[in-house]
Backbone:
């Protein structure tokens, strides 16, 4: 595939097994060939999709002292505000020219895993903005439903039980991330070249150009905004699970000419999910490419280097 395909995923909700299988095959081809695809027919209401951008603009317009009240430094569970230059996705380049806000799975105050302090089981840090929490959670929940649907397609394509991934996504480490890229003309990137860490990313963009994808032949292509569609891509965790049948793809964000907002939903499985080569992705007698690992341990191994330079500078 020279370009990123556009896939209508509404057949995954069909009662006709042939329609679901046909859509799954198209998804599978995209995951093998380029690792990126647009989705339409996703069922997320426009009011929810546009509302999350209203929430992003409201938060990033806050003064620095208010954003710092919900800083990422106040959480041990990948939640809260990350300031400009505090993240570096490509260790060979300058820190990313973006700011972000992370939201995780919303848990009840008496949740046993939260009270036990288990990794990725913290409270969300909510800004003091009327209606903001409800707006964000509506979008989070809509993307969660879409994630489960798309994973049913993956399972069909991989010749697994259609519901194979569903229990692995019951209490996920998924992160909803609001992003703001200030305009710039320098050589620095808004987000350095990287692959995503989890299973699947669902990205909404505001129409301002920036996202670029590296094809298998090494050339870079733009991922233009497609009205009403989301940009999706495979992450490294799912690549491990499929023993490299599905391949994650490097991508980056150029500094935009005008400010840019995007919203990324990073779908990670439950922290205790065992990520190991699927039997349908392993040839008879072949050794898997990766050793089994718990999803929580894998995500932590990827997150820590991303913030290493920030934590080092804060400690000095």
Residues:
């Amino acid at each position: 595939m020279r370009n990123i395909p556009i896939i209508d995923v509404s057949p995954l909700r069909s009662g006709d097994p042939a329609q679901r299988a046909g859509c799954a095959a198209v998804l599978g081809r995209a995951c093998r060939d380029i690792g990126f695809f647009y989705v339409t027919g996703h069922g997320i209401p426009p009011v929810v999709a546009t509302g999350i951008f209203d929430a992003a603009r409201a938060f990033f317009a806050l003064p620095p002292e208010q954003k710092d009240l919900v800083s990422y430094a106040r959480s041990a569970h990948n939640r809260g505000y990350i300031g400009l230059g505090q993240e570096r996705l490509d260790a060979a380049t300058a820190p990313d020219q973006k700011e972000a806000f992370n939201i995780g799975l919303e848990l009840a105050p008496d949740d046993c895993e939260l009270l036990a302090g288990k990794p990725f089981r913290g409270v969300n840090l909510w800004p003091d903005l009327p209606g903001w929490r409800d707006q964000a959670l509506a979008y989070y929940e809509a993307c969660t439903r879409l994630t489960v649907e798309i994973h049913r397609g993956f399972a069909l394509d991989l010749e697994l039980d259609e519901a194979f991934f569903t229990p692995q996504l019951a209490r996920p480490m998924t992160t909803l991330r609001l992003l703001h890229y200030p305009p710039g003309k320098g050589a620095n990137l808004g987000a350095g070249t990287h692959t995503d860490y989890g299973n699947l990313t669902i990205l909404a963009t505001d129409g301002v150009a920036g996202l670029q994808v590296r094809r298998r032949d090494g050339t870079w292509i733009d991922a233009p905004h497609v009205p009403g569609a989301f940009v999706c891509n495979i992450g490294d965790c799912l690549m491990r699970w499929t023993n490299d049948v599905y391949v994650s793809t490097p991508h980056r964000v150029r500094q935009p000419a005008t400010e840019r907002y995007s919203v990324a939903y990073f779908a990670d499985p439950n922290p205790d999910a065992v990520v190991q080569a699927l039997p349908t992705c392993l040839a008879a007698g072949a050794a898997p490419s990766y050793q089994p690992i718990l999803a929580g341990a894998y995500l932590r191994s990827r997150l820590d280097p991303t913030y290493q330079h920030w934590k080092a500078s804060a400690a000095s």
